[in-house]
């Protein structure tokens, strides 16, 4: 019998790359944000591309024809993606990225509900589709951060 097959799995459930589930989740979320940030600059994938402004509710550019974007909005997605990849290097940082990132997206959801879409205060800019997506991201990211790191903690005590 092989010793690899009979040896117990490490308590933190790392894979062959040495990454835990929470690290892989942070990395995956980071990659998605990078992809979204890049796609926001691609004409065709972003409709009304010629109306994109740096930071204004006047930007009528729509990623996938749904989500209102601007240059600033796309840059924020790119930075959030880079942060996810960097913070995925450690378990604690990956958990923090997911939980606090989810909280940030919940704040953006509230911002989108409170700030009128045609107001100068809507400088990000966001629309109703963005609001729904921000809420889904908030719930998903916090859940990933808490559930995946809780599983690791529970496994470490066994």
Automatic annotation (TrEMBL):
Transmembrane feature ranges: 25-45, 65-87, 94-112, 132-149
Any Pfam family hit:
DUF4383
Keyword presence, Transmembrane helix = yes
Keywords, comma-separated and alphabetical:
Membrane, Transmembrane, Transmembrane helix
Q: Supply the name of the protein.
A: DUF4383 domain-containing protein
Supply the source organism for this entry.
Answer: Auraticoccus monumenti
